[in-house]
Design a protein that fits this description.
5-stranded parallel beta sheet; Hypothetical Protein Ychn, Chain: A; alpha/beta
């Protein structure tokens, strides 16, 4: 009789929808919370294209709007989530980390705490190590 190893279900989450005017972040947050509460692994949440705007620490949603940045930060603190933002997407949308601010001689950075800027290679590696890719646009 063969013994099969049971691997934990794992996810890489790709968010491409804007933090404003899109349900992408709300849906991705709900999915991530449900997966984590069921004991599943979330390898990475990767924010690409319009999705990168969520990492802007200067976002000020209206009182009745979802503050996705703060909610992602809470999940990052509680579960150690890898919140990765495509560096090219971030910079095109004015989201600048300390290194980019230094490189481009920009006064100050606005990358929200808990987020990191990375290249596509890190996203690729996360996908390869996950059993599922979930995209929210």
């Amino acid at each position: 009789m063969k013994h099969s190893s049971i691997q934990q279900e794992s996810f890489t989450i790709l968010v491409t929808g804007s933090v404003l005017g899109s349900q992408a972040n709300e849906s991705a947050l709900r999915f991530a919370i449900a997966a984590l509460e069921q004991g599943k692994s979330v390898k990475q949440v990767f924010f690409y294209s319009e999705g990168a705007s969520v990492a802007n620490s200067k976002l000020l949603p209206l009182a009745d709007e979802l503050h996705a940045t703060k909610l992602w930060q809470g999940l990052q603190r509680d579960y150690g989530l890898d919140l990765s933002v495509c560096i090219a997407s971030a910079e095109r949308r004015g989201v600048v980390g300390a290194q980019s601010a230094d490189d481009h001689q920009i006064d100050g950075q606005n990358l929200a705490d808990g987020f990191s800027v990375v290249g596509l290679a890190q996203f690729h590696n996360a996908m390869l190590s996950s059993s599922h890719l979930m995209r929210f646009a």
